[in-house]
Amino acid sequence: MTRDAATAVQVLAGLYAGNPKRATQRPTSEALLKAFKGLHLTVFRKQPHTLYHVTTLSALQERIMALLGFPSAVYSILALHSAELTFKMSEP
């Protein structure tokens, strides 16, 4: 029996430290978030210029983004517009 791409079961390997070949069809949200640990956005400001640098996504992180249906460019676009997304964490 064959399945089309829409109904194919997707497995994800590389989420488990110490056992990178272990794959799962139902990763926990905690495991998915841990996979993105270590990403950084660095902002260099020297008037009149501001430069942004984001950590490159690993193959696992790119796969997770694809499985979630995000275009591959969404991560770098987010970095370019991060200044617009800042908000204050203090009470009014």
Condensed summary:
The protein is an alpha+beta fold and 92 residues long. It is 29% helix and 17% strand.
What is the H/E order? Answer: EEHEEHHH
Strand fraction: 15-25%
**Biggest pleated-sheet summary:** 2 strands, antiparallel
Question: What would you report as the Rg, rounded to the nearest angstrom?
Answer: 18 Å
Shape: elongated
Give the spatial strand order of the biggest sheet.
Answer: 1-2
Low-pLDDT sequence parts: none
Q: How many domains make up the 3D coordinates? A: 1
- Annotation, overall tally of beta strands: 4
Mean pLDDT: 77
Number of helices: 4
Helix and strand topology:
Elements: E1 12-13, E2 23-24, H1 29-35, E3 41-46, E4 49-54, H2 59-67, H3 74-80, H4 82-85
What report would you give on this structure?
The protein has 92 residues and is α+β, with helices and mostly antiparallel strands. The longest helix has 9 residues, at 59-67. Strand 3 and strand 4 form a beta hairpin. It contains four helices and four strands. The radius of gyration is 18 Å and the shape is elongated. The protein has one domain (12-85).
